[in-house]
Amino acid sequence: MKCSTCKFWNEPKEYDDYVNIRRCNKTVQLFDAEEWKQVKGETKRVLKTKYKDQMMFTQDASSYYASLYTREDFFCAHWEQNK
User: What digits encode the pLDDT tens for the residues 60-71?
Assistant: First the structure.
């Protein structure tokens, strides 16, 4: 269950080849996975239903864009066999 055999491990880019690090396409930007909702009379950011089984998120300081990069030997609970 490592990135080297996972379908979510991104295709290599030029800079990836020499360090063997790639972007994980399974991660979700936290800001995009949340929405504003009323919870017990308070307006809060809560996880959208479609992300209820998502176990990892990325976020940068501005909530603009972030990615998770891993090495090929990284172990992950979201692993799915590369077809």
Answer: 988 888 989 898
